[in-house]
Amino acid sequence: MSEQKNKQARGVTDVVLGLMRDDNAKFSPLAAFTGIILLVGTVLTVLRFTQGLGAVTNLTNTHPWGMWIGFDLMCGVALAAGGYTTSAACYLFGMKKYHSAVRPAILTAFLGYAMVVVSLLYDVGRPDRLVLAYPFIVQQGTTSLLFEVGLCVLLYLTVLFLEFTPIPLEWLGLRKARNIAVKLTLTLTIFGVVLSTLHQSSLGALFLIAPSKLHPLWYSPYLGVFFFVSSIAAGLSMVIFESMLSHKKLRHRMGKAYLEEHPPLILGYAKAASLVLFGYFMVKVVGVSAGDNWYLLLTPYGIWFLVELLGFVALPCFLFAVGSRNKDPGLIKFTAVLTIIGIVLNRLNISMIAFNWHLPLDERYIPSWMEITLSVYMVTCLILAFRFIATRMPVFDEHPDFKGQH
Amino acid sequence: MDNTIHTLQDFMLHTESNTYILMGIYLVCMIGFWIFLTQKDEDQD
Amino acid sequence: MAISRRNFLGWMGAAGLSASLVGKQAHAASTKEFAGHPGSYGVLHDITRCVGCRSCEEACNTVNKLPKPAKPYTDESVLNKKRKLTTTEYTIVNKSVQEGSPIFIKTQCNHCLEPACASVCFVNAFQKLPNGAVVYDASVCVGCRYCMIACPFEVPTYEYDAPYTPEVVKCTLCAPLLEKGLLPGCVESCPTESLLFGKRDDLLKIARARIEKFPSRYVDHIYGEQEMGGTSWLYLSGVPFKDIGMREDLGNTPAPKLTSGALHLIPMVVSLWPVFLAGMYGMTKRRNTIADEEKAKAVAIAIEQTENKAAEILSQAMEKAKKEKENVSKRVERARENRVKKALEHSSSTNSDEGA
Q1: Using a CB-CB distance cutoff of 8 angstroms, which residues of chain A are in contact with residue C273?
Q2: CATH classification for the domain delimited by A42-394, as one of 3.30.1330.30, 1.20.1630.10, 3.40.350.10, 3.60.21.10
Q3: Is the pLDDT of residue C194 over 90?
Q4: If I label A320, which of A47, A220, C51, C113 is the partner at 20 to 30 A Cα–Cα?
């Protein structure tokens, strides 16, 4: 009896030792690079919060949104879409064989959204008021799509946190709390999909207000649909990509279930991503047609648009199909990276490159090295947090005390 | 004070605010309704 | 057409909801078209009358207590370079040379009838006042700068260099002065009546009359009458507006209409997506249950069949055993009979031998 209790509630010393365990003791160039990024990033953080946005960014009155919105927010949210796609596939659409992929995907999404929120604190002029939730508590600007994005991101971060809690609770051996958290799975999954649908699409719809600033090839009344559909492809590709990285670095943590389900999962995801990209290609073409913007395709911006559409939508669609037909994990992994680059390119095009295209070149925005470094800093922190959690807690494997219980 | 809406912006602010309140209430009700709907299912897990 | 403003409440106002929803429903108009605040003010900027003296810039600077610029307002060299609005310059006069002669254009917030900045502000910091001014409330601003993305005229500016309390900055149409019954600083200071303050409806009539009276002097277009659903600032020009840096490709759609479609989809997703997803879940679960049941049935049948077969084999074996047993006993019988027969035959032959 007492032995079992011991097993359930892990000793405090165990937990502390686990937290302190250093699995990166070896010196490597990568570790050195990480260290430098963390150091410089911290210095720049101090600079940002003591000297203001002007001291670290190249933002201007005509380009009020830069790297931290275009990359950290737009790409961060899109690439964290693996969370809702995987949990929906597993719990709602009956793809039980993807069960072992849910936890890594949820963890990635949770950390991704946390990173997005932290980045927003850097970006807004009054982070104190964002922390105090001014838009929701003090005065509600409900006609703004940003209000909706903010509300959904806030709620979805909470949902992801709750979906994530079984992992640390199992690790800590808190059986009762963990069982309550697991009971909420269905509700949380449905809420997660609803909230994701809303804010993924609204991120695109943010630009609906500026038809005179965004290039017509990218501006479309369908912007919301484009963002939502492409986020599914991004989420699926990220799960493939992230499993590929984890296999290299965290294989020792992977349980039998994960390793067995992994190859069919990659094939299934590639097939799904291929199908989604096929549809996405069509809606993008419909966007061009609806605006009758064919004549713009042969301008420099049009060529750039075609590079995005053919090179990073049509091509990955085809390669994913070939990869899943031939059961070729190498090709699938390559294509996942290609798709991710394509989504990043699309978000950067809409928020930065094709935005304010009517302005002369010397009035255009190019991010400062400090903005880029802080974005890299955010991603580095995210990867470190992922590693920290995945090497210690039951993410890729089942906790021995909770086998087959979810 | 003038009690009349003259701009589309003010009108939408008004209707959207109501919509958000309705959506909040709906989602809470949805959970309750789902429980009511499936409470007597034999294959409850 | 205008409809009554009903008092809307914050999130938790469940008690107030009924009042909010029902309110003064009777006054609601059947067509939701809005013409803006009746009798609101505006300014007509007749570009053909502007001489580029920059008195308006100076007055704006004084009225708003802004820091003095490095070069005095009388220094005309400033006009040689195209300038943009800044956090310390709410209005700017730019020079454009058309066919050898200079044209001067004043720029400031156009005070849209349906402001894009107000539409996109997620703390509702911008407001179109009944007097026509679009004003900004710095006390709620979070500093997301979406207003600057949205504004088609690139008007709002941001204090990027203020470390702790940066604000959005733009022309206020001197709303505080209007309240006191005074003119906006720039209009007050204009020596050539290039700026004319009045009710927007009157200004439109005046502008039309000028175009009609001097058709060769003006292009037949009042900039701001329709642009982005109409603005409180109106412009008359002698040359096409696009030639002097004013965009004519903005369209006439009021800003809130640009996002209303996306906004109206939100409650549809919230209402129907959970229904669809819960349905999917139910179907998946049912399918799994049926699959489980069928599996169980198949197993039961298999077990039954095996059992039957076993029973059959057993009974066959029993039958066989029984038959064998019978055969054995028959054989035994026959053997005995044979033996008896033989014995009898033997004895009879012996008897016959004896008898011979």
Answers
A1: 193-194, 197
A2: 1.20.1630.10
A3: yes
A4: A220
